[in-house]
User: Fold these one by one.
Assistant:
Number 1:
Amino acid sequence: MSNTENYIEWDDYTELYQAYLDDPSEKVLSTTVFPRILQILGKVSGKTVLDFGCSMDRFSRIMHDMGAMVTGYDLSPKALEIAKSQDSKRNIEYLSRQEELQENYYDIVICIMVLLCNPKAQAFQLVNDIYAYTKPGGIVCFVNTNVATLGRSYQSFFRQLPQEQKEGSPYQNRIFTPKGYLVITDYFYSPEHLKQMFENNKFQLQGEEIIAERSILHILKKNLE
Ligand SMILES: C[S@@+](CC[C@H](N)C(=O)[O-])C[C@H]1O[C@@H](n2cnc3c(N)ncnc32)[C@H](O)[C@@H]1O
């Protein structure tokens, strides 16, 4: 599947997204959520890792430095250009064409704050595609916004929830950054819907955790065939 719908949007947002990532007040994902993922995964050295929707590769580079063989995939070529220029000395593979990803290849897939950027049909397809890329027995970690606490979890997010909170309804996510507001469209997915999407795509659910109120982490396994 090649999703072009979000392509322009994310290419245009690179600078503001970088400003958001650099802002010390917004480090929950890197200081709390990602360390928890590493704790769950254990040893990553020597493993094949796919960072699906890696953007400017903040997590790919950590896993690379821990000895993993990392592929960073994102549909925004501009984000990948920045990632490459920042990490030119690291041996990370960067891909912006989904067709280049290999099936049944990755021991670990991380997909952090990506599913919620996609409308319902694409989100379902994305989970299906990730299942295909994962090696049998492999582990996948999805992180999404925990919609149950939207609007009150932390100050700098100003969210306009959809009037009718249907699964897949778009809502505007207005994020403060030191360089201005980053306004993006996210899609509403309840924890129940996320779980259903994973299980309908044959994943075995190994765990679900709510982290710092705002994030929901799902740990999934692809069964040995
Ligand atoms: C909120 S950012 C998260 C980036 C990164 N995972 C992180 O946590 O820093 C979302 C990223 O997902 C990418 N993305 C959204 N939908 C995608 C899709 N269907 N396929 C590949 N990349 C996608 C966007 O281009 C963007 O870089």
Note: The first strand starts at residue 48 and ends at 52.
Number 2:
Amino acid sequence: MTAPRTLLPVEQAVGPLYAGVDLGGTNIKATLVDDRGRMLSFHTERTCPERGPEDAAARMGRSVQLLAEQAGVAITGIAAVGLGSPGPLDIPRGTIVRAGNLVGWDGFPLRDRLSTHCGLPVTFANDANAAAYGEFWVGAARDHDSLVLLTLGTGVGGGIIIGDINVEGAHSHGSECGHIIVDQADTARMCPCGLRGHLEAYASAKSLVARAVEALAGGGTGGLAEAVAAGEQLTPIVIGREAARGDPLAMHLLMETARWLAVGIVSLMHAVDPEAVMLGGGMTFGGTAAPVGREFLARVVTEVHRRTFPVLAASTVIGYASLGGDAGAIGAAGLARLAAGRR
Ligand SMILES: [Zn+2]
């Protein structure tokens, strides 16, 4: 759930200030935050990936200038910039290795070109790690010392934060929680990454819709079948809506998703033992404000508890993230702050 975006007047800001840029396949979001992670300004525009990475780097540089102007500070009043990008990345080099929606961007020196365009140091991070850091710093996990965040959208992203450490790994592939194995069978579902049995192949929006299509292939009755017969396109929103209206198939599909998620979460808990596991992204069915969102989370918790140790079942917090679509930009700014040595 996204809270209404409130912007802090610059007079009340506590310096230093940091800019965060969240580069997505569709949109670029940018924000300026103070040392406490409070937003002073916000800017969003279309990514237009077909215009190429140099064009995007120049526009991201301009967005940082725009953020400063909107907040009423000079660009020199910004200490550093954080850039979150879809991966996989080569973080030491500041490049994208392979990003599905950003065709032809591979190997482009994105971090350094943005730094040239805005004249500020840039910290480079995976977008899901940035979102995790946002939730850890000022979001739903702000009172916890460690966090595993799963972002449930078209894919399944992941971020692991332990204390001041953003787990990026030796090869920039740390925290790839969407690609942990939940089904080892040779016939397991194919993940968009090209390998079988990964969590993303079972718990993403794409997978939920694919499983719904399969379930309805032989016809069917109920709200979901009727929606499809009426020409509605199957989406997680439609499936969530029909579950809320009492369609057993729609509810079954959600509960199945919760079960797969729980299988993945238990492996992550047993590897990391975080204080909190949070679920964010578009596929949270209204979060705790909606009955279906509450039921989805409750099933995740129940299925986790069936598979983990009693002490972890009793003490690991499992809940929804709170920053919504702003988590990535805020967290990218937070990672720039962390890189500058702020705690
Ligand atoms: Zn995968």
Note: The longest strand covers residues 39-46.
